[in-house]
Amino acid sequence: MSFQLVSPTSLADRAKTMIEFEAQYDGKPLLCSISRRVLEQLGNRDGASTEELLALFEEHRPTIAAMVRKKYEVGVVDFVGKVVVTTADLNRQAVVPQPVTPALTQGVTQRITLG
Predict the structure, then answer these.
(1) Half-sphere exposure of residue 78, counting CA atoms within 13 Å on the CB side?
(2) Where is average pLDDT lowest: 12-21, 29-38, 44-53, 83-92?
(3) N or C: which end of the chain has fewer CB within 10 A?
(4) What CATH code is carried by the domain that includes residue 100?
(5) φ, ψ for residue 79 (rounded to 5)?
(6) Residue 104, CB half-sphere, CA atoms under 13 Å: how many?
């Protein structure tokens, strides 16, 4: 099974509380969103700007991808089939934020593939 996460380019919802992005699971498109609070908690940055949130998404991409994949694989999606990552997921995962070192992000494209 292949899984790819596509980077968001902006805050997509009107309330500016969620960042919407796409993933691909076995070549099928998957709509996803993550709350800004999850990103702020991952980066230990309360009140982050839109630009900071997008940077936090990239910085914590492996953690986000793991949460999305886990939820999708067990069938936890909303009524339109979207995977929504909230602080409950972060707390349930007992995730300890681990920033990605610059050496690991060099050459990273807009998609990642998880084995």
Answers:
(1) 11
(2) 12-21
(3) C
(4) 3.30.160.140
(5) -65, -20
(6) 10
